[in-house]
Structures are given as C-alpha cells and as structure tokens.
Amino acid sequence: MSTRGNVNRKWIPQGEEVLKREHGKTYSLLRVILLVICLGLALFLALTPLGHRVSGVVFAPFVSIANGAAELCTSGVRFLMPGVRKNSERLLEAERRISELEALLAAQADLRRENEELRRLVSLPPPQGWRAILAEVISRDPQRWNDRLLVNRGSEDGLTTGVVVLVDGKVFGRVLKCYRHSAEIVTILSSECRFGVAISRSDAVGVLQGGGEERFLGGTAGFVVDYLPKDLRISPEQMVVTSGLGGWMPAGIPVGDILADAPNGRKVHSPDGARSMIHGVPVAPFGAFHFVSVLVPKN
Fold first, then answer.
1. Residue 282 included in any domain
2. What is the tens place of the pLDDT at every residue in 70-79?
C-alpha cells in the first residue's frame, strides 16, 4: 500500500504540468482568434460603407463628449483669463487694419503712377493740325499682350479706324476697329498692323508690318519695313519714323530702332535685288501702362 501511494503522488505533479500546458495552448489560441477578429472588425469598419456607418454610430457619443470637453475647457480659460481673449481680438484687429493700410498704400501708389503718366501725356503737345485724345486701357489679353488692347474711347469721342496710337510720344500701334464708346488697337508688333514709314535723315520710305510670331536674332520681337530703295544705306543715328503719307498720321513720329539681325551686323536685306528690307524694334514702351494718346486730324 505504501509503495502504490508513493507512485500516485509522483504522477500528480506531472498531470498538473500537462494540464497547465494544455491551458496555455488554449489561451494562446484564443488570443490569436481574438486578434484575427479585431483585425477583421477594423478592416470592416475602415473599408466598407456599412462599417463607416456603424463606426459613426458607435463612436459618435465619444466624439461629442470630447468636443464638449474641449469647449468646456476653452470657456473655462476665457472665464478665468479674460485678458487672453481680449489680447487675441486686439491682435486680429491689428492684423486686419495692417492689411487694409497695405492695400490703401498700394492703391495710392497706382494712382500716383497714373497721375504721372497723365501729366506726361498732357505735356506732349500734338503736331500741328492734329489733336490728341487720351484713352484709358480697359482690357489687355495676357495671351496677346504685345498684339492688341481695348481702350475706352470710340467714334463718339472722335476716333476713326486707322489713326495712330502713341505711348510716351512714340508710335505704339493704330486703331483696328472703332466702336461707339471703345476701340480695338493693334500694336506695331502685330502682323495685322501695316502703315507707311520713312527712314530718318533720308528720303527712303517703305511699308511697316508687325512681325507677329516671328523672332529676330536673339529672340527679339519686332517689325519689318519692306519696299525700301534697293541702294539704301543705314547709319547708326538713323531710325524708323512715320512718313505721313496717306493722311492717317503726322510725319516724323518715332517708331523704332533699326536692328542688325545678321551675324556680320548687316542691317539692310535685299530679298530679290529690286528692293531693300530692314528689321526694327519699337521704341515705345510695351510694359504696364494705363493710358494711350490717339492722334486724330482737327476738323
């Protein structure tokens, strides 16, 4: 009897260890199952419309509680520290006022530039027998910035199709289309602009046409003067001016400088041996301006 009891007592610890190992495997399996379930639930809530609705319903109370707590904290801070709110309001008001003052200064600078531009145009007397009509630029297409623009003067103000348009006393273009209260202007860079010109300090006359999309040496935009005398010689002090032929514009107004667009510096080209042709660049400014001067004959 005593021997059998000893044997049984030896096997009891071994059975307990077996049970512990079995329980450990069961717990590990349960943890894996719970992890898989949690991952599946997370994917369901994140990737499916039904999951979105379920998560919104489940977590909405917690979100509301968090927002309410944040608002309560903010209210408490404002109640306990009223100076913080006043300082923030003062700072926002100061920033708003600074923005308004900056905008006002920019507007005043624009007005100052416009006034200076108007004074400069008014101080330029028109040629004898002509009168100048000041027109404000109301539209300029960014894609055709150097080709055309629209001004706020038209036939009711005395403008007619073909008259010359000046900027700072230099030829900028001519009126292409004239309406009652506005006019469309093409510049001397536009291929739609053509008129008679002359070479200063000579008797040579020709026809100017804007170069359009053509670019000369160095990528310069300009114009072409064709049908000049075949034996034309150009000196450095000469330039292109209006010829006055046709009665559309007075003679002698500066148009542009003559461009040496060949590697050897040659300014005069002879396309067929019977006439000469030159390339030129405008002397009128093509940047940002607000007003132009249109010359029309005195009635």
1. yes
2. 676 666 656 6
